[in-house]
Amino acid sequence: MSEERRDxxxxxxxxxxxxxxxxxxxxxxxxAISVFIGTTREDEVDxxxxxxxxxxxxxxxxxxEFAKLxxxxxxRWPTVTHICVHHxxxxxxxxxxxxxxxxxxxxxxxxxxxxxxxxxxxxxNVPIWKKEVYDTQESxxxxxxxxxxxxxxxxxxxxVYQ
Length: 162
Fold this sequence. Notes:
Order of helices and strands: EHEEEHEEEHEE
Low-confidence stretches: 153-162
Radius of gyration: 17 Å
Strand content: 35-45%
Number of strands: 9
Shape: elongated
């Protein structure tokens, strides 16, 4: 008994519901739901405290890249049943979720590997950008290290360009 695969992608300015993401992938044919929740962490950069992140996206291209990501996941882990990713846009203060994703599969191994791959590829390929906002009211756009155009860092944190 095979059920139709479901891929759900949502960009939202509203607070993310982990339960909504879990419900989107729930299936009686699956014994595992793997979940990842990415939160905005408190950090300090050059003596400035991060108070939140501001997210922007190229929404049409993000939808297209998500479809490619789902196809890639299904090719690598054919037992994956449903995939759901919700990502915040706009202001996300420290402690709040900026991304919530869930993947269902009959057994945990495939789902756990797929969820790790999903967050890595989402950060590398889906056009969603973040800007750190500091307690000084200054801000700085941040580069995802997973992006193919991102230059590797040295131990001192300087970029190495080749």
